[in-house]
Design goal:
Number of domains: 1
Helix content: 25-40%
CATH architecture: Sandwich
Largest sheet: 8 strands, mixed
CATH topology: Jelly Rolls
Shape: globular
Radius of gyration: 19 Å
Bound molecules: 2-oxoglutaric acid, fe (ii) ion
Number of helices: 8
Strand order of the largest sheet: 1-2-10-7-12-5-4-3
């Protein structure tokens, strides 16, 4: 594989937060992606998540289908999702499982869990991971706030993160797909919808970014895996908040001919949050590019376009 994109490595445990914030600012302006280390999620827990994930996806389709995605929780089968309908009609060659917020009883009730008889460790493993990655994500948001010269708790407050709508998503890309005339991608070209995404993979390559979305033909660069590091990227809501100062960069996953697993955490604000251009990111010569929008409405519409329904 060609040399990967050079991205800064942010150490979440570093006491020099000013320097971390300034590296993040540069990364978010240049590319919208960076690596995160010392994030507080132990390798052992991450290993258990991948182990449970592979056990779940190895179950027969009839068993997995009993947990078919409802209200954005549960299982989606191969080709159910199409992140770039303009490029292919077939859908993406991945299956996935969504887990929504745990803290709020009403929200948690919507979650679906595989039977304890079949996978007794699944739920505690995923709950533990969800809580830890959420805590890491909130700390990243405080650095992003500093990077924008805002108070550290700006996003915690404006996004009402006690009532966040973050989603943990397990993904499985099969290794071999059989021949097809159409190019089938693991995840077709897309930008993420929310505030930030924290991604871990099992090390199988495939993730690529396109730094200039309007340039044709698109130039794709590999984002290499670093053991133990998360890949963090900016989502569309953050791009809207910052009036495109911070980029929500288009990315995709190409087939590597090997089975690939990834675990993606989409940190999203409370659905009532009004996402509007930050005062520091606009002026007379740089007016807001997007009208204010309620987070819940924006995300619902993005899911509708991806799945053909907002459910
Ligand atoms: O699996 C990956 O590496 C990336 C997945 C992704 O971009 C997504 O689910 O939004
Ligand atoms: Fe993505």
């Amino acid at each position: 594989m060609a040399e990967g994109l050079k991205l800064p490595i942010i150490d979440l445990s570093s006491p020099d937060r000013t320097s971390s914030a300034s590296s993040i600012r540069q990364a978010c302006i240049d590319c919208g992606f960076f690596y995160l280390v010392n994030h507080g999620v132990e390798d052992e827990l991450l290993g258990q998540v991948f182990d449970q994930s592979s056990k779940f996806f190895s179950l027969p389709l009839e068993v997995k289908s009993k947990l078919t995605r409802k209200q954005n929780r549960g299982y989606t089968a191969l080709f159910a999702e199409n992140l770039d309908p303009s490029a292919s009609s077939k859908g993406d060659s991945k299956e996935s499982f969504y887990i929504g917020p745990l803290e709020d009883a009403t929200q948690n009730k919507l979650n679906q869990w595989p039977s304890e008889d079949i996978l007794p460790s699944w739920r505690p493993t995923m709950e533990s991971y969800y809580k830890k990655v959420l805590s890491a994500g909130k700390r990243v948001l405080s650095l992003i706030a500093l990077a924008l010269n805002l108070d550290e708790d700006f996003f915690e407050k404006v996004g009402d993160l006690n009532k966040h709508t973050a989603v943990l998503r397990l993904l499985h890309y099969p290794g071999q797909l059989g021949s097809s005339d159409e190019e089938v991608l693991g995840a077709s070209a897309h930008s993420d919808y929310g505030m930030i995404t924290l991604l871990a993979s099992n090390g199988v390559p495939g993730l690529q970014v396109c730094r200039e979305k309007s340039k044709q033909p698109r130039v794709w660069e590999d984002v290499l895996h670093i053991d133990g590091a998360f890949i963090v990227n900016i989502g569309d809501l953050m791009e809207r908040w910052t009036n495109c100062l911070f980029q929500s960069t288009v990315h995709r996953v190409i087939p590597a001919g090997q089975e690939r697993y990834s675990v993606v955490f989409f940190l999203e604000p409370n659905e009532e949050t009004l996402v509007e251009c930050l005062a520091s990111c606009c002026n007379e010569s740089l007016p807001p590019r997007f009208p204010p929008i309620r987070s819940g409405d924006y995300l619902k519409e993005r899911f509708r376009l991806t799945y053909g329904s907002s459910e």
